[in-house]
Amino acid sequence: MAEVYVSLGTNLGDKDNNLRTAVRLMQERIGKVISLSSFYETVPWGFQSEHSFLNAAACIETRLSPKQLLLVTQQIERELGRTQKSSGNVYKDRLIDIDLLMYDNLQIHSDQLVLPHPLMTERRFVLEPLAEIAPETIHPVTGKTIRELLELL
Q1: Is 106 a residue whose pLDDT tops 80?
Q2: Catalytic site residues?
């Protein structure tokens, strides 16, 4: 069993329902949701929008490999109406976004997946909910706890 941390975000439609539906689908298809943060209202990061975000973090126990996990989360995004992922640092409004943050202590660098998530340490909207559920968890690259990384922002 592996422990995986994910970040969820939405800024379109019924945001509360978008997050709750994504969590329910992850519970059904990925594994047991061990912990789920509060929902945080945040401003868009990396682009301008009149729509605020609702963000959360979750920890899930899974038997899926990192690649299988990525495919399942992408399928959930599509089912919930996400038509395209951001690319080339061009971000857009979205119904749902599920980012894989950390998978145990693995470090993966492939064309499809980079773990831990390369931008997580720069994003308060990721670290704040993550610090709520996993403050003492160690980031596998920096060696710092999630709480310490949040304090550095």
Answers
A1: yes
A2: 82, 94, 97, 99
